[in-house]
Specification:
By secondary structure, this protein is mostly helical. The protein has helices spanning 3-10, 17-23, 27-32, 42-63, 69-79, 82-91, 102-106, 113-131, 133-143, 145-149, 159-167, 211-232, and strands at 175-183, 190-197, 201-208. The chain is built from twelve helices and three strands; from the N terminus they run H-H-H-H-H-H-H-H-H-H-H-E-E-E-H. Strands 1-2-3 form a three-stranded antiparallel β-sheet, covered by helices on one side.
Length: 233
Amino acid sequence: MNIKKLEEQLGIEFRDHQLITQAFTHSSYVNEHRKERFSDNERLEFLGDAVLELGVSQFIYKNNMQMPEGEMTKLRAAIVCEPSLYAFAKELHFEQYILLGKGEEQTGGRTRPALLADVFESFLGALYLDQGYETALQFLVTYVFPKISSGAFSHGMDFKSKLQELIQQHKDQSILYQIVEEKGPSHNKEFVAHVLMNGKQLYGAGSGRTKKEAEQNAARNAIDRLMDNDTKR
C-alpha cells in the first residue's frame, strides 16, 4: 500500500505507519500472510465507529438547536449507515489502498459497500489513536460535516411531513413550495426552493442538488423558524 500517496492526498502525516497499514488490512489478507506479522482492521473499525458517532452527534447537537432528540437520532442514523460510509470511502478513493486476500479480490471485495464502510471506520479509529480526537474531528469537519450542512442526508429526515404536521396545528395557515432558481451547468445543477405561508409570506428557503432536496432544506429552515418563534412566546 502506498502510504505516502494517501498521506499527501489527505494532508495528514501519520506518526505510526503500522496503524494506517492496519486500518486498510482486511482479514483475508492476514489469513493469506500468516508468516508475516499483519493485523486486520476489525478492532480499529470498532473504535472508529465510536469516534464517528460521537463526532456526528456533537455536530448535530450544536448545529440543530431546535431539533428534538428523536429527530437527531434519525439524522445521525442516516449519516453513519453503511451506504453513507461507503460513499465517503469511495469519494476518498480508499479502495485503492486496501490490502485484500486473492480470493476476496477476485470476488469484488475491493468495491463491496460493507467492506469499504468498515475501512472508513477503521481509518478513523487509526487516526484517533495516532493523533487524538481533535485531529479525527477535523477530518470529519473536512469530509463529512459539509455534506450534513448541505442537506445530503435530508432523505433520512422528512422535513416536509414534519412541517405539515406543525402547520396543521394552525387551521388558518397553509404552505406552498416554489422552485425560484436553477443555477449551474446541466450536470451539476443547484436548485433554490422557497416555502410560502398562505401563498405569500416567505417562511423558509433552501438549496439542493435536486428539487426535492431543495424543498426538504427549505422545510427544515421553516421548521427552525417556527420552533424559534414558539420558544420566544
